[in-house]
Automatic annotation (TrEMBL):
It catalyses: ergosterol + NADP(+) = ergosta-5,7,22,24(28)-tetraen-3beta-ol + NADPH + H(+). It is found in: Endoplasmic reticulum membrane. It comes from the Eukaryota. It holds the Pfam family ERG4_ERG24. This is Delta(24(24(1)))-sterol reductase. It comes from Absidia repens. GO terms for molecular function: Delta24(24-1) sterol reductase activity.
Length: 429
């Protein structure tokens, strides 16, 4: 995984950059044929995706900017859940994501329209910027692992170096009040993904004089996602990633490089296909309306479902607060919800979307992710990679969660499953 996934990212890039998104293979599957194929891929990456100085400035400049904003901008301070590794201590998180997000939107618009920094440079240097992100992902993972060891903050170690490096050593690495895991989860991957899509759309406008419906669709899709992360940042504090997962290669590399540079395949494909063929991908009006509807319905369930769950947790934790960030959707907060009280002491929510299915936010995620692929048509598998990858990830998570909860709650979990029998879609599965 640690070597294979970066190689896969470069392979996808070569397919998009030089082959209109078609998955390429060796001409002949012999030793010489495979060697020739690998040499071709390496040559294309070295010559076309070399991490040059401009790419370093663009990516690392944004990383540094986002870290400074996370450290300095004002925002409400929220307590997280009690951490067993810290004997129940609750860490505090400065939730200034909204200030960062709004400031970034304004600054990026000013920089682009004044010509100081054209956002189209991101799309024009995509491969090189991705290379910088991959290098930085490895660097951050290594630094966090080594420094955690020096400071004696290892947690749940297996003794296997490669496994521990992948999963992480420290649960909540921090630089002062800056929580690195929280920052890497929300401030880098999704804004970078959004600006990749914006860059592709602006590149189309620069060359064609218009922005197509599919390009606008991807900008909207990624705007909704990053906006949800920032406006509901206080809800992320109670998530499994923040509360339990250690900050290793799996999280750090994935957030620094994996998310923004693989989830953007639809936007890059739309741009590269048009550049190669001169033809803009477009669809019929009914099909386009259907996909926008699918996206927005999926987003509504995603936003309100996550809000219901995490605000319920925050109420139990005593850290709930009302924020008027845009948009505040109806049914995002359930007053006096129904739930099952377990012998373990935890409460299992059985109201709202969580009374309809056990994983409604996963269903919503899949609705949005398939729409990202469908908007590009059927010319390439790559825009569908995110959906396929997500199906695998969520299938594993569901299996893990069901097993963990059954072990943790016992008969109470059986009662919960009787009350909420469906995992994704009522009366289907």
């Amino acid at each position: 995984m640690m070597l294979g996934f970066p190689c896969l990212m470069f392979y996808f890039w070569v397919c998009l950059e030089y082959h209109q998104g078609k998955l390429i293979t060796p001409e002949v599957f012999t030793v010489d044929g495979v060697q020739t194929f690998v040499k071709y891929l390496v040559h294309q990456v070295v010559t076309g995706a070399f991490p040059h100085l401009l790419a370093v400035k663009i990516y690392m400049g944004f990383v540094l900017y986002s870290a400074i904003c996370a450290y300095t901008l004002p925002g409400p301070v929220i307590e997280g859940l009690g951490l067993p590794s810290l004997k129940g201590k609750k860490l505090k998180y400065c939730c200034n994501g909204l200030a960062f997000w709004y400031l970034t939107l304004v600054l990026s618009a000013v920089l682009h329209y004044t010509g100081v920094f054209r956002l189209t440079l991101i799309a024009e240097n995509f491969g090189s910027i991705m290379s910088v992100a991959i290098i930085w992902g490895f660097t951050m993972s290594t630094l966090v692992y080594v420094i955690s060891g020096i400071m004696g903050k290892h947690h749940r170690m297996s003794g296997n170096f490669f496994y521990d490096f992948f999963m992480g050593a420290c649960l909540n690495p921090r630089i002062g009040k800056l929580d690195l895991k929280m920052w890497a989860e929300t401030r880098v991957p999704w804004p970078v993904l959004f600006y990749i899509s914006v860059s592709c759309a602006l590149k189309q406008y620069e060359t064609k004089g218009y922005i197509s419906a599919p390009a606008a669709f991807m900008v909207l899709a990624h705007f909704l996602y990053v906006n949800a992360c920032q406006k509901g940042e206080e809800c992320i504090i109670t998530s499994w990633d923040i509360f339990y997962e250690k900050d290793g290669f799996m999280l750090m590399f994935w957030n620094m490089a994996g998310v923004p540079f693989t989830y953007c395949m639809s936007s890059i494909y739309l741009m590269k296909s048009e550049q190669a063929t001169g033809v803009t991908i477009s669809h019929s009006l009914p099909y386009t309306i259907f996909l926008f509807t699918l996206l927005l319905v999926g987003y509504y369930v995603f936003d309100t479902g996550n809000s219901q769950k995490n605000r319920f947790r925050m109420e139990q934790n005593g850290s709930f607060m009302t924020r008027n960030a845009f948009p505040q959707l109806p049914w995002g907060h359930i007053k006096n919800p129904s739930y099952i009280r377990t012998e373990h002491g935890n409460l299992l929510l059985t109201d709202g979307w969580w009374g309809i299915a056990r994983k409604p936010h996963y269903t919503a995620d899949l609705m949005m992710s398939i729409s990202w692929g469908l908007i590009t048509g059927c010319g390439s598998f790559l825009p569908y990679f995110y959906f396929c990858f997500f199906v695998c990830v969520l299938t594993h998570r569901v299996s893990r969660d069901m097993e963990r909860c059954a072990k943790k709650y016992g008969k109470d979990w059986d009662r919960y499953c009787e009350r909420v029998p469906y995992i994704f879609i009522p009366y289907v599965f």
